[in-house]
Specification:
Largest sheet: 2 strands, antiparallel
Number of helices: 3
Low-confidence stretches: none
Strand content: under 5%
Oligomer: single chain
Number of strands: 2
Distance between the termini: 42 Å
Strand order of the largest sheet: 1-2
Structural class: mainly alpha
Radius of gyration: 15 Å
Mean pLDDT: 93
Shape: elongated
């Protein structure tokens, strides 16, 4: 549960703010293609890392819901953080002169 709270606090808020600020300059089709590509690569790398026991998740720190051994929180992370970064980049690019 703690992992989800951290992701929501540091993912949803900045992603929402920057996507809203950059809403008029983001090419949305490209945005969703980039999100999908990043998501697929992240899921594959996370799956490999979990299977190789590169990282583990502590009991009680996650919801316990997942797919292919990957916690739900990671899927949320894989969607929110790239959105945050793309929104931030587009906003800063459009306001840099």
């Amino acid at each position: 549960m703690l992992y989800l709270l951290i992701i929501l606090l540091f993912g949803i808020f900045p992603a929402a703010v920057f996507l809203w600020l950059a809403r008029n300059v983001i090419h949305w089709k490209t945005f969703f293609v980039a999100e999908a590509f990043i998501f697929i690569v992240a899921v594959i790398s996370d799956y490999i890392g979990i299977q190789a026991e590169v990282w583990t998740y502590g009991t009680g720190k996650i919801l316990g819901i997942g797919l292919f051994g990957i916690p739900l929180e990671d899927y949320i992370f894989f969607l929110l953080i790239p959105a945050w970064v793309i929104g931030c980049y587009e906003f800063l690019k459009s306001n840099s002169g």
